[in-house]
Amino acid sequence: MIKEKNLALSGNQVIGVDPATGLLHSWTFESDGGVGEADWSRDGDHWVLDADGTLADGRSLTETNVLRRVNEDTFTWQSVEVESISGSVDKATQRAAWTIGGHQAPVYEAGIGNLTKDETPILVHLGDGQSRQVALIRLPQPAP
Q: CA-based, 20 to 30 A from 138: which of 6, 56, 69, 75?
């Protein structure tokens, strides 16, 4: 269990070598129903965790965490980049719309089928009545 300010987290985490990549990977199962996973990489005297997950309320989360050993009994955990993604799908039109980081704008919109492509056009609604079409491009995973 982790306690900080009025925040209490509990659950289970499995850390091991991902057989598909040969890299250190973790799978997290929170007691409230949230789930996540992270790729671990060593950076000098600390570990960097690039994590993705789904919160108990269904929102997606992407974050970068830094795990640093202080001494034999103590380590620090720092979240340096945290972005939640909230959105919904219109079942009739099969279009998804989402925002990032709790902001009301911009709103991103795309057809669900297009989101599996390596490159696809999406609409960005800027919140001032203007919209723009941009390319959403899937980037390759960085080499370990």
A: 56
Rounded Cα distance between 134 and 20, Å, is: 33
Domain positions in the chain are: 2-85, 91-137
Q: How many CB atoms lie within 10 A of CB 20?
A: 7
List the one residue out of 85, 32, 87, 86 whose CA is nearest residue 63. 85
Q: How far apart are CA 20 and CA 128, in angstroms?
A: 45
pLDDT tens per residue across all 144 residues of the chain = 344 444 455 889 999 999 998 999 999 998 889 899 999 999 888 999 999 988 888 888 888 888 988 888 788 888 776 677 788 999 999 999 988 877 788 899 999 999 889 899 999 998 888 899 998 888 776 555
Counting every residue, how long is the chain? 144
- Residue 13: name the closest of 95, 22, 102, 31 by CA: 31
Q: Phi then psi for 84, rounded to 5 degrees?
A: -95, 150
- Residues in Cβ contact with 142 at an 8 Å cutoff, skipping those fewer than 6 apart: none
